[in-house]
Amino acid sequence: MQRRVTFPNRVLPYLLLAPQIAITSVFFFWPAFQAVKQSLYREDPFGLSSAFVGLENFRAVLTDPNYLHSLRVTVVFSLSVAVAALAAALLLAVMTDRVVKGRGVYRTLLIWPYAVAPAVAGMLWLFLFSPAMGTLAFLLRRAGVAWDPLLDGDQAMLLVVVAAAWKQVSYNFIFFLAGLQAIPRSLIEAAAIDGAGPWRRFWSIIFPLLSPVSFYLLVVNTVYAFFDTFGIIHAVTGGGPAKATETLVYKVFNDGYVNLDLGSSSAQSVILMAIVIGLTAVQFRYVEKKVHYA
């Protein structure tokens, strides 16, 4: 006969949840509500007067060629950052998991970049690849590469992708390494005894068992590429040259903070939030089916 366990204090759980609920309400639900409300109005730059325009801001945004261009830039940028960050982190985690001596040192050095602020990470890569004083830019020119991300849009995109992926590799590395250490060694040893080579063992045993971690990191990296890379883009390229690196979140900043078009900026933020929620839902609906939970 099973005995039902009840928590004696019915008030304490709500008190423990209250700080998190308050923070979420103040910093997420209230700004989201204000953005939705403001997207239905057209305001003057100083916020002194407003007029209700309904969905006119959304229609103007979705028919704006500049916004569609930013959408294409965001898709390319997000896919590139997610793939590069996940692939590099998985490779580093697999190599670190094989290290016997000095394992703690390797882990510490690989985790450090995550503590760097996005704007600082952007400035580090900007100094390294600056056409005027960058060390790596000098080496590229010595090798015959015409390197100038200030004028070449493709080079600017490559630079911000590398900087954003480098910033996220440490986070991915922590989870991949934890996932690798959770895999029973007996499975890998049994496969090795049966004659499976390193690649066969990785793709048939290790990688499928890492699918829950990989799925979680796919969602996190998607959200990161859409939102948390603003500081890197702002520090490295400022959305240029010629809007080649102007992602959706950076266009929200430009239209709202720089150009003071508050209605259009709010509509863009609502659309961006809907896109991220939709992508996350699609990932949970279709990608999670391929996830193997042991």
From TrEMBL:
Membrane-crossing residue ranges in chain numbering: 12-33, 75-96, 108-128, 156-180, 201-227, 267-287
Keywords per UniProt: Cell inner membrane, Cell membrane, Membrane, Transmembrane, Transmembrane helix, Transport
Coiled coil regions in record: none
InterPro entries, A to Z: MetI-like (IPR000515), MetI-like_sf (IPR035906), UgpAE/MalFG_permease (IPR050809)
Stated family: Belongs to the binding-protein-dependent transport system permease family.
Gene3D superfamilies referenced in this protein's UniProt entry, alphabetically: MetI-like
Pfam families from the UniProt entry: BPD_transp_1
Protein name in the entry: sn-glycerol-3-phosphate transport system permease protein UgpA
Record-linked PROSITE patterns: ABC_TM1
Membrane-topology descriptor: Multi-pass membrane protein
Domain of life assignment: Bacteria
Compartments it resides in: Cell inner membrane; Cell membrane
Taxon lineage: Bacteria, Pseudomonadati, Pseudomonadota, Alphaproteobacteria, Rhodospirillales
GN (gene name): ugpA
Positions of the ABC transmembrane type-1 domain: 71-283
Assembly, per entry: The complex is composed of two ATP-binding proteins (UgpC), two transmembrane proteins (UgpA and UgpE) and a solute-binding protein (UgpB).
Protein function: Part of the ABC transporter complex UgpBAEC involved in sn-glycerol-3-phosphate (G3P) import. Probably responsible for the translocation of the substrate across the membrane.
Species this protein is from: Azospirillum oleiclasticum
